[in-house]
Amino acid sequence: MEELKNFVNSIRRDFAGKPLNEDSVDTNPLKQYQIWFEEAVSAQVVDPYAMSIATVGKDMQPSLRLVYLRDISENGFVFYTNYGSQKAGDIAENNKVALNFYWVELERQIRIQGKVFKVSEEMSDTYFNSRPRESQIGAWASAQSTELTSRQVLEEKVAELTKKFENQDIPRPKYWGGYIVQPFKIEFWQGRPNRLHDRLVYTRTETNDWEISRIAP
Ligand SMILES: Cc1cc2nc3c(=O)[nH]c(=O)nc-3n(C[C@H](O)[C@H](O)[C@H](O)COP(=O)(O)O)c2cc1C
What we know:
This protein is of the alpha+beta class. The protein has a domain at 28-131 and 173-214: Roll (Pnp Oxidase, Chain A). The chain is built from six helices and nine strands, in the order H-H-E-E-E-E-H-E-E-H-H-H-E-E-E. Strands 1, 2, 3, 4, 5, 6, 7, 8 and 9 form a nine-stranded antiparallel beta sheet that branches. The protein is globular. It starts with a helix and ends with a strand. The chain binds flavin mononucleotide (FMN). Flavin mononucleotide binds next to strand 2, strand 4 and helix 3. Residues 47, 50, 63, 65-68, 79-82, 85-87, 144-145 line the site of flavin mononucleotide.
C-alpha cells in the first residue's frame, strides 16, 4: 500500500504545476480535454469521470450535483440520468448548464459552460443495455428526486421488479436517458506555484471555431 502511495505521489510530482501554454495546447478544447483526461487516468486520479453539473430552473436557484461522464465526442459531454429528476426539471426550463471537473492529484480544474440536449433514444438504449442488470433495475425502481416514505419502499420495489424481469432482457424506461452538454466556453486551470496558476479559456466563435485567451489567476 505504501509503495502504491509513493508511486501515485511520484506521478503527481511529474504533472502538478506543469505549465499550461498557449503554444502547446490543442486548438480544439475537446481534444485538449481528452489529453488531460488520459493524463488523469495515467495518474490514477480517483473517479476522473465524476463531474459536477450546475443547473438553474425558472426559480433562478442554482443547483449542483455530481454525475458520471459516460461519453465525449466533438459535440460534447454525455451523462445519463432520470428525465423526471430535479436536474431534468431545471433543464426543461433552462438548458444552460455548467460542468466542473476537479482532479486534485494533478492540480487541475476544467470549467465548462454550455447548452444541454437529450441524446437520441438509440444512444440511450445502447448505453442502458450495456449497464449491469442491477443498475437497470435501479433505474426502473427509483423515481429520482421524489420523496420516499422509507428505504423499505425502495427495496420492495427492487424486489418486485427483479421478479417481474426474471429471465428477460430489461428495456430502458422511457423516463431515463442521456443528455449531451454542448460547450461554448471551456476553461483549463492548472495549479502553479505561489498561486500564479495558468488559466486558458476557449470560447466558441460565431463561425464555430475556438478562440483561446489567458486570464489572470
Ligand atoms: C460520484 C457520483 C456520481 C454520480 N453519477 C450519477 C449519474 O451519472 N447520474 C445520475 O443521475 N446521478 C448520479 N449521481 C447522483 C447525483 O449526484 C444526484 O444525487 C442525482 O442525480 C439526483 O440529482 P437531482 O435531484 O438534482 O436531479 C452521482 C453521484 C455521485 C456522488
